[in-house]
């Protein structure tokens, strides 16, 4: 092959990787074409196996990641520019930088896979190595530098995907690895069929079908059991624009809106979203808090508001007593970098984003569940539900999960349905109902099997009243966390690489 043809071929592989990454976005909410995950990640596996060197494979993984994250996390630009007021060029550069950083993780996985197959490796063993590397790289992305596991592959496999059945055992990172394995098996079967290697095509097709069947059978297991009497829960969505929420003259709008919604939706437990009351809790009018509590009576009330703590300001969820005073409290433990805390030397970022109260104090992890309406409620705030191990720790002593979010930061983007899909995975992993109260969407009731029982239309001012039954019992994931998935990935790598075929002897 001439150098020109070789360069053209290399260019096509990078372009194909970029397109496959963009295709992968369609596997996630709001599209939820979960089989496309097998096509996209299977295509990535194929390109890496054909790569001439680990460096080339890393470039393929980088392009795949750029296609995936530039498309799937495009809401970062919306958040910084459209809502946060950051100048467009800086917001675009920041979004590109974040996408490039996230793309480093599939690039690393692809480089290691390419190095592993430098010596002959059976197609099935290569598929196992690929699956293990995807699982490990996504766990690393969810942990390094406080973590950002958005669009982890496993999230694309919420119900009705049969792979959701593996979530109570291995969590989202384990499901990521299994989904990558399915993609690699699909490619192996297709390529064997093209090469007329029919026995191999049947072998890989049977392995793929068995994996899907196994997940479907596991989904039929009830890891947890109903606990206590059903309760009526009102999840309120005020739809207050972020650009107006913190303006002093618009404070009354927030207070009046949530008081009216509370009165209109009586329930055993009423939940207001994150920072629904956009003023330090200590500065809110005492008569308003007492009136709000009275409006919810005889039910109980959970309110999102910033508070002043000994360590600084906190992003809190509070229950109110009859006199409007705080009785129980949860302080957000996993803060958003550059949104809720600013690393040293980045004060300029806070000024560009015009973030009010952008440097919070982190609460302890874990915190005891709140006792509300006869249930033990584990609260998490906004993007804390991206971190499965944290939610699993909180779920151990809880019967219900509640997420309070201010999604107005994301505007009209993919973030809201993607965030709901993340919450659905937390419900499946823990076997607990997940209730979401958000400012602009998506406010929802998610059952323990990850099904959305009811959801409000985004960007509407309304309340969702749901009948909810708490659950007790422990899924394997709640008991052991990410450890089984990580150990299985490491063991798979070791067995596949140690058992690979020896290189043929040199000719001559």
User: Roughly how many Å apart are the termini?
Assistant: 25 Å
- What integer is the average pLDDT? 91
- Helix/strand/pairing category: alpha/beta
Number of domain modules: 2
Could you characterize what this model shows?
Keywords: Acyltransferase, Cell membrane, Hydrolase, Lipoprotein, Membrane, Transferase, Transmembrane, Transmembrane helix. It is found in: Cell membrane. By secondary structure, this protein is of the alpha/beta class. The chain folds into 2 domains: 8-222 and 482-498, no CATH class; 226-474, Carbon-nitrogen hydrolase (Nitrilase/N-carbamoyl-D-aminoacid amidohydrolase), CATH 3.60.110. 48% of the residues lie in helices and 16% in strands. It has 16 helices and 12 strands. The protein has helices at 3-24, 35-50, 54-72, 75-83, 88-116, 123-141, 167-194, 198-218, 242-245, 251-264, 286-296, 347-353, 388-395, 415-430, 476-480, 483-498, and strands spanning 225-237, 269-271, 300-309, 312-320, 326-331, 370-372, 375-381, 400-405, 434-438, 444-446, 452-455, 462-472. The strands form 2 sheets. It has a 6-stranded mixed beta sheet. A hairpin with a 5-residue loop joins strand 9 (434-438) and strand 10. The longest helix has 29 residues, at 88-116. It is globular. It starts with a helix and ends in a 10-residue tail after the last helix. Mean pLDDT is 91; it is low at 1-8.
